[in-house]
Design brief:
Blueprint lengths: L1 H11 L3 H8 L42 E4 L5 E4 L2 E3 L7 H12 L5 E2 H8 L5 H19 L4 E4 L2 E4 L4 E3 H17 L5 H14 L12 H27 L3 H14 L4 H13 L3 H19 L5 H14 L1
Parallel strand pairs: 1-7
Antiparallel strand pairs: 1-2, 2-3, 4-6, 5-6
């Protein structure tokens, strides 16, 4: 039942964050104005807040002639020159590139791509459309960016930097670092910063919704949200609730309907004796769930809220 409500919500409200900011007086704080985290190996040393997204650069990205951004918005640069995907003649080639990335970018079958872009075309027409569009995309990208082998297309990772690929790599490294014994605090904080810098929003977040990318978008969102929880668990484990709180707030930005994030954030506020903020967070969660889903908070949230009220007295 809850899943059905969320699906109905997504159809009615395309951007829940904008809805929150326009309808509630205390929207979830964003992280864009925060300063870089201090990655000192001494976990007891004072740390600043999460990295400024504009300043936390991914140096490896500058080593590639082709730069493709897909998180939050889509953009393409070739040899440091921006390519307008809306120009006449560029739309279908860019759509082919987006579909290729959404399907994994490696050894994706021509038929699968054609079914996504030209679903009503028969075999011969679809093949011709694919061949012509591929030729135009190769001309747009240049070099050996696209490799076709036995009717299977691959985006050359030696030539192309793709933000969502870099994000997945970073999240995997972050998870491995947190789970291994004797984890390196410096590496974890650097990777966490990099993940936040890379995740600028949902996959193709500024595009009209298309069935061919929904599964990949959900996969990336879930992977990022799960990793955020892992990061928060880690910071709470080393008694850095202040840092965990910033990641919980980031998680609420990404998924404002995930009640567990509010519960965890309220607990952190209570640990820091910031009762007013914990209460305000519960009230925000209550208003949001009521306005968007027509439901009340869970008993866990309500019980925690009353416990915090008693502590605040």
């Amino acid at each position: 039942m809850a899943i059905q409500r969320v699906q109905q919500l997504t159809q009615k409200i395309s951007n829940p964050i904008e809805y929150i900011e326009h309808n509630f007086t205390n929207p979830t704080p964003k992280l864009n104005d925060t300063t870089p985290i201090n990655t000192s190996a001494n976990t007891n040393a004072p740390l600043n807040s999460i990295a400024n997204i504009a300043e936390c650069n991914v140096e490896a990205s500058y080593q590639y002639p082709i730069m493709i951004n897909t998180l939050g918005h889509y953009s393409l640069s070739v040899n440091n020159k921006h390519k307008n995907s809306h120009n006449k003649g560029h739309r279908k080639p860019n759509e082919l590139l987006k579909v290729l990335i959404a399907f994994g970018g490696r050894s994706v079958g021509e038929v699968r791509i054609s079914d996504a872009i030209w679903p009503d075309a028969d075999g011969d027409v679809a093949h011709t459309s694919f061949s012509v569009t591929l030729h135009r995309l190769r001309k747009l990208l240049g070099g050996d960016a696209l490799l076709l082998n036995d009717s299977h297309l691959t985006l050359n990772s030696q030539q192309c930097w793709v933000d969502v690929w870099e994000l997945e790599k970073t999240l995997n490294e972050l998870k491995d670092n947190i789970n291994k014994q004797g984890n390196d605090h410096r590496s974890i904080t650097q990777l966490a910063n990099q993940a936040l810098q890379l995740y600028q929003g949902p996959f193709l977040g500024n595009e009209d919704e298309q069935p061919w990318y929904i599964a990949y978008r959900d996969k990336i969102n879930n992977k990022f949200s799960n990793c955020l929880m892992l990061i928060c668990d880690y910071f709470e484990h080393i008694n850095r609730c202040d840092l965990a709180m910033q990641f919980y707030r980031k998680g609420i930005e990404i998924n404002p309907l995930q009640e567990e994030l509010y519960i965890r954030l309220m607990k952190c506020y209570a640990v820091k004796n910031r009762y007013a903020e914990a209460i305000a967070m519960y009230q925000q969660c209550t208003r949001l769930l009521d306005a968007l889903l027509g439901i009340a908070p869970s008993p866990d949230s309500t019980n925690l809220y009353h416990n915090i009220l008693r502590q605040a007295q």
